[in-house]
Amino acid sequence: MSTTTLQAPVIEVLQDVSPSGRARPWREKKMANELLSLAYEGVNPHKADRLRDCATYLSFAVDQSGHKRLEGANLCRVRLCPVCSWRRSLKVHAQMSQIIAAAERRRPYAYVLLTLTVRNVSGDDLSATLDALFRAWNRFAGYSAFKAAVRGWYRGLEVTHNCNPASPNYGTYHPHFHVLLAVLPSYFTSRDYLSREKWRAMWQRAARLDYEPQVDVRRVKGNTAAAVAEVAKYAVKDADYIIPDDWDLTVDTVRTLDAALDRRRLVAFGGLFAELHRLLHLDDAEDGDLVHTDDDPVSSDGVHYLSYAWFTGYRQYIGGSERGIGV
């Protein structure tokens, strides 16, 4: 009498490593996502449901060397979602890398990192302050000195939240712009050169401030990868609004940020960068595809597929072959 031995499917915990060797934080971002969904129960139950269902399923193409490329995922696209915010930052990084590479194929450029700030504001004043900041940027980028010096620009908004009870600015918000500028190599010795004091005076004038704001200006030296990573930061880091030791503060912060950031365009391209974004047929950096971010290429040889599901009880992504996930 013959017997048939049934082999259990191969089960594995998700390990996804970038080509640079850095582990991608799927587990950490999904755990933060679950905490955020709880906070949203008292803010917007519909978004809470979307967050719970976000990134519960992931599908990867895997090449012979073991590199993974995300091919499918159910993503919620809630602005504050830690998973979706992380994917947006990867997308911006990848797009800026492509744009800079395309610019360099035309001619050499130099790059400048610019950070434009205003004073911290209360949660009640955050939305109005963001309105004023975006109007200020439009004036700033329209100044003749800016246009003479800058060939292309990327601008991203970041809002940090001071949740340290020992800080004198506890509970306030700090909105600011991270900007990457493309300039000609001759800019630093030309009459179009702008010192830090000139940048600050221009920003103070554009933002119509009655005080001198903090403005940071630095030339990008060597590889531009660090500069691209700097401007591709999250709009808001999840540690700034998920405060497990103070749940009331978490809910209040989520409510404030959700209202202030709703329906806003947080990133923008101008000049040469906007032109190349169109010519490269790149999709929308905020509302476009968050699955294929072009940050994780795989070889076309010997590709197979793996899928993973989020198990809340294990707090892990557990997967197997595309034929199904078994336990």
Commentary on this structure:
This protein is an alpha+beta fold. Helix content is 35%, strand content 21%. The protein contains nine helices and ten strands. The protein has helices at residues 26-40, 45-52, 82-106, 123-142, 144-149, 196-207, 225-231, 247-261, 272-279, and strands at residues 12-13, 57-62, 68-73, 110-117, 152-161, 173-183, 215-220, 267-271, 304-311, 316-321. The chain has a five-stranded antiparallel β-sheet with strand order 1-10-9-2-3, with helices on one face. Strands 7-4-6-5-8 form a five-stranded antiparallel β-sheet, sandwiched between helices. A hairpin with a 4-residue loop joins β9 (304-311) and β10 (316-321). The protein is flat. Residues 323-327 have low confidence and may be disordered.
Shape: flat
Looking at the chains present, what oligomeric state does this protein adopt? single chain
Terminal CA distance reads 29 Å
Q: Bin the strand percentage.
A: 15-25%
Ranges with pLDDT <50 over ≥5 residues?
Answer: 323-327
Derived structural class: alpha+beta
**Range of helix content:** 25-40%
The average pLDDT score comes to 91
Query: What is the H/E string?
Result: EHHEEHEHHEEHEHHEHEE
Biggest sheet architecture: 5 strands, antiparallel
| Neighbour order of strands in the largest sheet | 1-10-9-2-3
